[in-house]
Design brief:
Elements: E1 3-10, E2 18-25, E3 30-34, H1 41-49, E4 56-61, E5 67-70, H2 82-87, H3 92-104, H4 111-126, H5 132-142, H6 156-168, E6 174-178, H7 186-198, E7 202-206, H8 210-216, E8 219-224, E9 227-232, H9 235-267, H10 271-276, H11 279-294, E10 315-326, E11 329-340, E12 344-348, H12 355-363, E13 370-375, E14 381-384, H13 397-402, E15 407-410, E16 413-416, H14 417-422, H15 428-431, H16 440-451, E17 458-462, H17 470-482, E18 486-490, H18 494-500, E19 503-507, E20 513-517, H19 520-526, H20 558-585, H21 595-625
Parallel strand pairs: 3-7, 3-8, 5-6, 6-7, 12-18, 12-19, 14-17, 17-18
Antiparallel strand pairs: 1-2, 1-4, 8-9, 10-11, 10-13, 15-16, 19-20
Length: 626
C-alpha cells in the first residue's frame, strides 16, 4: 500500500463535494479516476498530492513515498530552457545541492556553517543528491528533449512533455495526472500511452479520452455524489458493471419510494387510524423521510439538440488544387476535395500542421495562394471555435446564450433561456452568474449551448470534446451521428472520431494531405508507414518526401506461415487468461491478499493487453503478405 485515504471529507457548499472517502492506492496500479464534470476529481487528486487540506479525515503514506503531480493546464508563465524547467522538479534536493555548493565555496566556515554542511551532506547522501546532473541528462534523453530549447517557443503538447519530465525527475513512485492528453495531438497521445505502459510506479489519472483509459487502466475508481466506487479490471468491465449497478439502484430506489408513499398514505388516514397507530411505525416513517431527503440524485444528462435549418444544396463545398503556406512552410500542395450534403468529415493531424487553416480556407475565411473553393447553395454555417477566450469572462451565462433575452427559439419552439441552459446541466444560480466561475468542462458546455441556438445545416466543430465528461461526449456523439446536415470536425479523440465521422482528411507524417474512408481505426489500416524518427519538441516542418518505387511484395516463408496459422489460438489463450484474471480480481476479498499478489495480477493484466496489441499488429502484417 502506497497511500491510504480514511474518511476524507471536504465541503464546498452543500451537499459536500467529498464525503467519507476511503481509498487505498497500491503499488503497480494504473487507476483511472472517472466521474462527471464538477464531481470533484481534480480536487481529490490535489488532496492526494498535498495541495489541498481536507476538512476531515486522515491520509496515511508509506515510508519513502514520492508523489509527483501533473496539473490539467500548462502554466501561463512557463519560461527558461528545457533543462532549467525540468531541473526545477528536483525540489528540495536541488536546493540542498545548490546550498551545499555555496557553502563549499565559502571560506572560512563558521561553526553553524560547518554543522549545516554536515547536515546537507547527509541529506544528499540519503536522496541520491550527488547524481542530479546524470539523472537530468538521462531524463532529457529518455523523453527526447533538447536541453537548450526555450520552453516559451514550444507548442502546448511539447510543453506538457517538459512538465512530465519535471514531474518524473524526482523518481516518484506515485504519479498523478489530471487530463494528461489536453493539448496533445494523436501522435503525442500515442507516445504518452507507451511511456506510461512502461512506467514502473503507480499512476492515478483523470481523462475523458476513452481510448487512453481502455489502454492504460488496470482498475477504475468512480467519484460520484461525493463518494467513490472501486471497479477492478479494465474500462469495458467497468461499463458493464456500472450499467448493472445503475439498474439495481433504480430498482431499489423505486421500491423504497413505493414503501414511503404507502406509509405517507397510512399516516394521513382518518381519526381511527391515528388513535391506534404504532408509534414505532411513526418513527420508522420519520427515518424514511430523512433517508429520502438525504439521497443524492445522479446528475442528469445533457439534453443536446441542434436547431435544424433548411436543407442545403447537394454540393456543400468543392475545393480544387489548393496550395497554401505561410512563414516559408507549405501546408497544402494541390489538395482537392468535394463535400456533399450529409457528409461527416474529420480532420486529423499533429498540432500546428494547419488543420484550422484548412477549415478557414474551406469556409472562405482566408484566400488560398492558388486553387479555388466553391460553396453550394442555402448554406447556414455554425462554427465552434476551440479558443475559449471568445467568451466574455464577466458576462452571465444567459447573456452569452441569448444576449439579454429571457427566451429563445429552438426548432421553431419558444423556450426560456434558463430552461434551455438547464438542459445543459446549469443550475438557475449559475445561469445568472459570470463565465469566470465555470470550470473547463462547463465552459465547453456553454459554448455548445450557444452554438446549438443557431439554425445550421453545416456544423464546423474545432476540438469540441476538450474537458467534456464521458456521458456528455457520448450524447454529443449520438447527436452528431443522427444530425441530418453536414459536419466538419477537428478532434484528437480517437474514440469520438471512430463513432462519428464517415471519412477523414489527414495531414500525414510525410507532409501530404490525404482523404481516407471511415474513422480513425480505418485510417490506421490505410495510412502510409510513419517515419522512423520519433516526434521532437520543435515545430519543424517534416522533410519533403523522396520518390521511391514501391517495395516488392515478399511472400511468407514456411516459418512465417506457421506463425500466422498459430496466431488465432494464441489470441484465444491470452483473452481467456485475461478474462480469468479479471474474474479473480473482481472477487470479494481479492484486495485483502498480499500486496505482491495484487501487483502481480495488475502487471500481468497490462502485459496481456500489450501482447494482444502486438500480436494483432503482427497478424495484420502477415495477412497482407499472405
Amino acid at each position: 500500500m502506497l497511500l491510504q485515504l480514511n474518511q476524507i471529507h471536504l465541503s464546498i457548499g452543500h451537499p459536500p463535494l467529498l464525503a467519507s472517502i476511503d481509498w487505498q492506492i497500491r503499488s503497480g496500479e494504473r487507476t483511472a479516476l472517472v466521474g462527471r464534470n464538477g464531481a470533484g476529481k481534480s480536487t481529490l487528486l490535489k488532496i492526494i498530492a498535498g495541495l489541498i487540506t481536507p476538512d476531515d479525515g486522515r491520509i496515511i503514506k508509506s515510508n519513502g513515498l514520492r508523489i509527483s503531480w501533473l496539473a490539467q493546464e500548462v502554466p501561463t508563465k512557463l519560461e527558461g530552457t528545457i533543462r532549467e524547467v525540468v531541473a526545477a522538479g528536483f525540489g528540495a534536493v536541488g536546493q540542498w545541492r545548490e546550498r551545499y555548493q555555496m557553502l563549499v565555496c565559502k571560506m572560512p566556515l563558521t561553526n553553524a556553517d560547518a554543522d549545516e554542511l554536515e547536515q546537507l551532506q547527509g541529506d544528499l547522501d540519503a536522496n541520491d543528491g550527488w547524481r542530479l546532473e546524470q539523472r537530468l541528462d538521462a531524463m532529457l534523453d529518455r523523453l527526447d528533449l533538447d536541453p537548450d530549447a526555450r520552453v516559451e517557443s514550444l507548442s502546448g503538447g511539447f510543453k506538457r512533455r517538459v512538465l512530465l519530465a519535471q514531474a518524473l525527475i524526482n523518481q516518484p513512485n506515485l504519479l498523478l495526472l489530471d487530463e494528461p492528453t489536453n493539448h496533445l495531438d494523436i501522435q503525442q497521445i500515442d507516445w504518452l500511452e507507451k511511456f506510461l505502459l512502461d512506467f514502473n510506479g503507480s499512476v492515478v489519472f483523470i481523462s475523458h479520452d476513452r481510448a487512453l483509459v481502455r489502454r492504460l487502466a488496470t482498475n477504475i475508481v468512480e467519484l460520484e455524489r461525493g463518494g467513490i466506487t472501486h471497479w477492478p479490471g479494465d474500462y469495458d468491465r467497468y461499463l458493464t458493471g456500472k450499467m448493472a449497478a445503475l439498474e439495481e439502484e433504480e430498482r431499489r430506489d423505486a421500491l423504497f419510494d413505493k414503501r414511503l408513499a404507502a406509509e405517507e398514505v397510512w399516516i394521513r388516514q382518518g381519526i381511527k387510524a391515528r388513535r391506534t397507530r404504532n408509534e414505532g411505525r411513526v418513527r420508522a416513517l420519520e427515518a424514511m423521510r430523512r433517508e429520502r431527503a438525504e439521497r443524492r440524485e445522479r446528475a442528469g444528462n445533457v439534453n443536446l439538440k441542434v436547431d435544424a435549418s433548411n436543407r442545403s444544396g447537394q454540393l456543400v463545398i468543392e475545393a480544387l488544387d489548393l496550395h497554401h503556406g505561410y512563414g516559408g512552410r507549405q501546408l497544402l500542395n494541390g489538395f482537392s476535395t468535394v463535400i456533399q450534403r450529409g457528409d461527416k468529415i474529420g480532420i486529423l493531424g499533429p498540432n500546428g500542421c494547419g488543420k484550422t487553416t484548412l477549415i478557414n480556407l474551406l469556409l472562405g475565411e482566408i484566400t488560398p495562394d492558388a486553387g479555388t473553393v466553391r460553396h453550394g447553395t442555402r448554406l447556414e454555417i455554425a462554427y465552434y471555435d476551440q479558443l475559449r477566450e471568445t467568451l466574455d469572462e464577466d458576462a452571465t451565462l444567459m447573456d452569452v446564450v441569448a444576449q439579454g433575452r429571457t427566451s429563445i427559439t429552438i426548432n421553431g419552439q419558444e423556450q426560456s433561456v434558463m430552461g434551455y441552459l438547464g438542459e445543459f446541466l446549469f443550475s438557475p444560480r449559475q445561469t445568472r452568474g459570470p463565465v469566470r466561475a465555470l470550470s473547463g468542462g462547463e465552459r465547453n458546455r456553454l459554448l455548445l449551448a450557444r452554438l446549438f441556438t443557431r439554425p445550421a445545416n453545416f456544423l464546423v466543430l474545432d476540438e469540441p470534446t476538450n474537458d467534456l465528461d464521458t456521458e456528455t461526449l457520448e450524447i454529443l456523439e449520438s447527436l452528431l451521428t443522427n444530425y441530418a446536415g453536414t459536419l466538419l470536425l477537428v478532434s484528437h479523440d480517437r474514440a469520438f472520431l471512430d463513432n462519428v465521422v464517415t471519412s477523414l482528411i489527414a495531414f500525414d507524417p510525410d507532409g501530404e494531405v490525404r482523404e481516407y474512408v471511415g474513422g480513425y481505426s480505418d485510417y490506421l489500416r490505410q495510412r502510409p508507414a510513419p517515419p522512423s524518427r520519433e516526434n521532437v519538441p520543435r515545430d519543424a516542418s517534416p522533410p519533403p518526401p523522396t520518390a521511391s518505387p514501391p517495395p516488392a511484395k515478399v511472400k511468407l516463408n514456411h516459418k512465417e506461415r506457421q506463425e500466422l496459422d498459430a496466431i488465432p489460438a494464441r489470441i484465444d489463450a491470452l483473452e481467456n487468461e485475461h478474462r480469468q484474471l479479471l474474474e479473480t480480481m473482481s472477487q470479494p476479498g481479492f484486495y485483502s491478499r498480499p500486496a505482491a499478489d495484487i501487483t502481480a495480477a495488475n502487471t500481468r493484466t497490462a502485459q496481456i493487453q500489450h501482447e494482444l496489441e502486438t500480436i494483432v499488429e503482427r497478424w495484420e502484417v502477415l495477412e497482407q503478405r499472405a
